[in-house]
Amino acid sequence: MEFASAILLQVLELVLALLVAPLLTGWVNQCRAWLQNRSAPSLWLPYRQLAKLFEKEVVLAHNASGLFRAAPYFIFACMVLASAIVPTLSTDLPFGPAADVIALVGIFALARIFIALAGMDVGTSFGTLGARREMLIGFLAEPALLMVFFTASLISHSTSLSTIVETFAHREFAIHPSLAFAGVAFTMVSLAENARVPIDNPTTHLELTMIHEAMILEYSGRHLALIEWAATLKMYVYSCLGLALFFPWGIPQGALLSNLLIALPSLAVKLGVGGFLLAVIETASAKMRIFRAPEFLGTAFMMAVLGMLVHLLLETGK
Amino acid sequence: MSLSHYYGQFINLLAAILLLLSFAMLGQRRILSLINLFMAQGAVLCASTVVVALTTGQSHLYWSALITLVLKVFLLPWILHRLIRRLNVKWDVETLINIPTTMLIGIVLVIFSFNLALPISELAGTVTRSLLGIAMACVLLAFLMMITRSKAVPQVIGFLSMENGLFFAATSATYGMPMVVELGIALDVLVGTIILGVFFFQIREKFESLDIRHLEQLKED
After folding, report:
1. B204-219, pLDDT tens digit by residue?
2. B126-165, pLDDT tens digit by residue?
3. With b meaning 16 or more CB within 10 Å and e meaning fewer, what string describes B115-144?
4. Min CA distance, A309 vs chain B (Å)?
5. pTM for this one?
6. What are the domain boundaries of chain A?
7. Which residue of A has its CA nearest to B119?
8. Domain membership flag for residue B221
9. What domain count does chain B have?
10. ipTM
C-alpha cells in the first residue's frame, strides 16, 4: 500500500512538473510585464505556443544529421528525469535513490552537451557561436553549482536530495550562515543556467547577443516545441531545487496521499513568490556583456566556496 | 534548546553577512554602491552588537550599538555622499589588480585568517569565540581593498570598513571595549573622515586628479 502510493506520488509529481512548468514561465513573463509597465501576456500563452508548435511541420536543413533530430528528445528526457528526482511533493519517492545531487548536475550537463552539439550540427555561424557561449557559461556554472550542493551535503552528511531535504525540513531548526552564501551562489548560477537576464536575454531578437536562442535558431515544429518545453522544465526544476535546498518547509516526509493537502498549496505559494522575485531581479538588472559573465560566475563560485569555509569554521565542532 | 542558543546562531548569521558585504565591497566598481555597502555593513554591525548585548546582558553594549547606528549608518555615509557630490566623482573605481584576481586573493586571506583564529578561539570561553576568524577576515579584506584601489575615496571607505572589522572583533572576542575607548575611536573615525575629506580637495587641487599614485613622485617634472 505504502509502495503503491509512493509510485502514485512519483507519477503525480512528474505530471505536475510537465503541466506546471509552462505556467511558471508564463507567470514570470506576466510579472515582468507588470513591472515594466507593459500590458501583460496571458498566463496560458506558453501552452498555446507549445500547442501551435506541435501542430506545425518540421523543416530540416539539408545537411542536418540524425543527431540534430534526436537531440530535442534527449534534452526533453533529461529534464523530465531531473524533475522526477527533485523532491517537490514528498521526500520519500521511488526515484529519489536513483540519483544524488552530483548525478543531477551530470544530467544537466548531458542536456547541455546535446543542445550544444545540435547547435553546431547544421553549421550556421550563429549556432556555433551560441554553442560556444553556452559551453563557456556551463563550464563556469557547474563547479559553482557543485560547491553549493557540497555545502548542503556537508550540513546533512549526505548527497542524496531526499536526505538533504529531510534534514533541513524535519530535524530541529537551526540557522546555517553557510546556506546564506550558498543561496546567493545558487541564485546566480540558476540565472546563468536558465538564460535569464544578467547573462542572456530570453526575449532578445538580436542574434549577436543570443546564447540559448542562437543554438535553437534552426529548429522548428515539434522539435522546437520539445526544446521550449524542456527549457521551461529546466526553470521549474531549478526553482524546485532552490526551494528544496533553502526553503524546504512544507515538503512532507512520508508517501501519504493526504500529505498532498499541505504539499500542493505550499509549493504553489513558494513557486509564485519565487517567480515574482525572479521577475524583480530581471527587471532591476541589465544584461551583461558576455565577457563579464566569467566574473559573474566566478563570484558565484567564490560565494559557494566561502559558504563551505564558513560552515567549517562556524558550524562544526560545537 | 534554549533561546540563547538561537542568539548564538543569529550572531553567526550576521557575521557571515558581514563577510559577504566585505567581499561585495571588494568586487564593487562604483563609488556610490561602495558607500551603500558600507552603510549596510554598519547596519549589520549594529544588529550584531545588539544581539551580543541581549545574549550577555551587558548594558553598555546597547550604547555602542547606538553609536554605531548614528555614526556608521547615518553620519559617515552622509558625509561621504556629500563629498563625492561636491568632488563630482561618480566614475567607476580604478583597480590596480583586476577584480576576479582580487577575489581569489580575498579567498586566500579568508582561509589564512580562519586558520590563524582557530587555535586562539579554542582558548576563549565566550559564546562568540568562533567569530574571531570572520572579524579578522573582514579586517584583512578591507586592507586588501585599500591596497588594490588607486583612488582616494575608495581607500578611505576601505579604512572605515577596516574599523568595522576591528569593532566586530572587539564585540565578538571580549564583549566590547570600555565606553571611553569606544567613544574615542568613534570620534577618531569621524574626525579622520572629515580631515580626509579636506585632503581630497587638496589632492585634487594639486594634481587635478584623486589618483594617489601622483603622491609617490617627490619632484615635479
Report:
1. 777 777 777 777 776 6
2. 656 678 888 889 999 999 998 888 777 888 889 889 988 8
3. eebeeebeeeebbbbbbbbbbbbbbbbbbb
4. 7
5. 0.86
6. 2-314
7. A313
8. no
9. 1
10. 0.76
